[in-house]
């Protein structure tokens, strides 16, 4: 696909104060196809001046926006949700082109629409408290928005994160500056066109494209940004937390990386376990924060499990052009990610035993990595410790429950963990012992429920997001008021 075909049909400029503009210094960056190294389109790179202007616009718009009733604010959400649904096909196409997600399994825009729908009604749920406990006084709390909230998102599931972060920030009365990922900016730009069509007042939602340096860093150091919600790597999360402490101590929510363990006991339904775990490792070509990439199977069931797992993985995967309906395994997002994953495969081959790692159906050009399985890898190997973000899984064995728990928890990450067993006592014990923000029993990632909090233990994050209250709570200050 040449530059012309994509660029004619898609907005690539910055959305500031309700208008699309080129970068103030005219700079753009190249967006490269995930399938081949062709230039897809040139995208505006937000400068420091653009970023400051977006923050100023949000700051100026916020008093009037927060003065509206939640119902009024929510009415814009309903229109936006309808427009997102109408454009689902285009969202899917743009994500396939830029980050290689197959159109066949594309659900991100639908989730984004449902999220805006949900929050369109949720604003009234936010209320303060009153107290008559202190004689002579009426005490109460107000919940008030911060003002300007920054939303920094990754490339792997962009629309879902954009909606899950922006909608709660907005419905409680903040205005937002969204910074999309330089690897997948097109769907955020499309969403900005729908924000305009939906008639949101200028400045309520601003959308910038660009890299961590400059726009991401300017936002995280900005004195007028009072809350920042981030999803991305642990490395960037640390930089953002540092920027917050060096600037204005803005409130920070961090959803970071993972190296999720799954424990399979000998009494588990091995068919169900392999089905769930193969999908967990393979979906989005392994570029999923909560992918179950460390599997610990009880030694007595290991041979059966590994045979089933390998068979299922080989049978499931249909690599190819992400725009084709049959494809369920697209290329990795770009050459950097491709080279990074290949380096981990070399480590895996050196430290462990590879039992699946090539497929005749893998296209020979493009950033395709076939699902790859390693066994017998020492726990100290880098491939067991670091997040790979590709369709790579390590399967190791254990004898005792305590050993499985120790190995699972021996990680700086703690985003998600799974346990497969038919023994309810064991399921309860193990789920309590695992150090992870989410534990799945007899199921695995990417399963999450819409009404429980999501977030990480340890290096996987700070704070919790989710419906009904966690995300909205993050975007609100609490004030105590005493009346004598
Ligand atoms: P990344 O950290 O490289 O980039 C994420 C965003 O941060 C991008 O928009 C990027 O431009 C921006 N950024 C980069 N440097 C910055 C800086 N110094 N200041 C401010 N912003 C900066 O992550 P990625 O490669 O886009 O995404 C993959 C990572 O995200 C993986 O580690 C994955 O596990 C994680 N992730 C976590 C979750 C979760 O819910 N916990 C979900 C999805 C992805």
Automatic annotation (TrEMBL):
Which reaction equations make up its catalytic activity? an aldehyde + NAD(+) + H2O = a carboxylate + NADH + 2 H(+)
Instruction: Give the protein name, as stated in the record.
Output: aldehyde dehydrogenase (NAD(+))
Say which family it is in. Belongs to the aldehyde dehydrogenase family.
The residues covered by the Aldehyde dehydrogenase domain are 20-481
EC id: 1.2.1.3
Keywords (A to Z) from UniProt: Oxidoreductase
Q: What is the lineage of its organism?
A: Eukaryota, Fungi, Dikarya, Ascomycota, Pezizomycotina
Fetch the PANTHER family from UniProt.
ALDEHYDE DEHYDROGENASE-RELATED (PTHR11699)
Query: Is-annotated flag, keyword Oxidoreductase?
Result: yes
* Catalytic residues in the record: 255
InterPro entries membership: Ald_DH/histidinol_DH, Ald_DH_C, Ald_DH_CS_GLU, Ald_DH_N, Aldehyde_DH_dom
Question: Which GO MF term does the entry hold, naming one?
Answer: aldehyde dehydrogenase (NAD+) activity
